[in-house]
User: Fold this.
Amino acid sequence: MTAVAQPSFGRRASQAAGAVVLFGGLFALAALTGLLIAVGNGNPAMAFAVPVGVGALYGVWKLPLRYSAMGVLFLMFVADYLPEGAYSNYWTSPFNILGQFLFLNLSALSGIGALRFPGLDLMVIALLALSGIRRALGIRIDVRAPGARLLNGVLMVELLAVVGLDVWGTLTGGNFNESLWQLRQLLLLPMMTFMFMAAIPGRTKDLKLIAKVMVAGAVIKSFCGMYFHFMVVRPQGLVVEFTTSHSDTLLFVPLLGMQIAFFFFTRRIRAAWRTALLWMPIVVYGMILNDRRLAYVSLGGCFFCLMLMVDARHTARRKVLKAFILLSPLIAVYTGAGWNSNNPVFGGAQLIKSLIKGDQAQSGADYRDIENFDVLYTWSEASPMPAGFGHTFLEPVKLPDISFAMPTYQYHPHNTILWMWTIGGVFGFFALFAPMVACVFLAARAFRRATDPVDQTACMTCIFMVIAHANQCFGDMGTRTYFGSMGMAVAMAVASKLAVRLGAWPAPTASKGAQYEALPPITALGPTDETIRLPPGAGVR
Assistant:
């Protein structure tokens, strides 16, 4: 009798414990929902935050990390980039609340002063921690593939340089609070890269997934820019510098460069054109409406790089170069005829003129030229030691007053290439920008080994991202944008994985106890057509 009753009592106890957990969880969710509604000033939409958040956390825990990482990338692309005044602050898109969560400190949303970091930072660190937890517990949801240790070492050097320059700048009288804004993206770059390296194995289907995420984000952002232009700007007669944001250049340019490169490498050119025509005109028009000169400069740089990288015997390359040579006299005549014309037909000529002469500021000189001179002067006046983060640039030539829009403008000059020379000195500068060099190096080596059009295009797209980011750093605070740090992180992760998978860089020795499966042979591009096999431990687990 006792033996029979004991299991029954155990079942009842288990059911009671389950009921307590269930009702306790429901009570906690209800309490948290009420708190969020109170924090949101009675906004009922906040009631959906809890179930949506719980569902998202469950999905992140169950899904492979690559899907979660691509989700974060997609959300960043479509959200209003509020740090740069998305849509010139004249329009609030449906993705504005997402931009507040991703890019503004959570303390501004929650009222909790300790949460002095954006949601995007939290998501990156959480995914990085999730990868570590899965490795520690032996959970094999994610496909593991080795990357180049060269990049790991370079990223650690960059991280140490950021921390060291911040400490040095604070000790030499720098403003610590402002230094955090100067270095935030540089500090996050290694974390983002390690997160994507853990999430992206570097297979062909992973590369296609990244391309689809970029296309979807660019199309949505372009449609938002079109709506803003035709439904807000034109009816109200507004004058705006851009439609979406400055940093969307770092989405539009690498994506368009990727498609142009794919045209060169694929043998299914008609199918490629049919697919590209579904989205490419939309993104091109979105980039035109965004009206950023750096976008055209970067796209030109990507095309020039492609011409240098593609084999000289390539048929498409020869045809393009011949067409450019034949059209060059017409381009010169067109530019000369439209140099002083305001006719929309000569918009291209006006673009070339603005690139050469710049925009005229209040005093008649270009604002950026004056600012660059001031930054160079600050660099020349500095001691041989680096200035460190937290300092301002000097103004021997007074700039037009922009303090009403940006009170801390002296901490954040537009040309962050020159500014990092001042902050880091010779060694600090090279440490801060070494990851970009490593990315190009690995991508270029992998490109020479690649034979598949998707791999070739991916290698070139990694280089295109570096070109776009470097131009953004030179012209428009590139070291302060999430688009730059996140885009570079994806590019470096892909270049690292492709370099090892294609045999362009030695694979690291497999850790003790790790089980790897050998990848299929990779055919090298060369006259001997030799077969290259990865060394032991260089496969996918």
Q: What stands out?
A: The longest helix spans residues 2-39. The beta strands are 522-523, 531-532. The two ends are 53 Å apart (CA to CA).
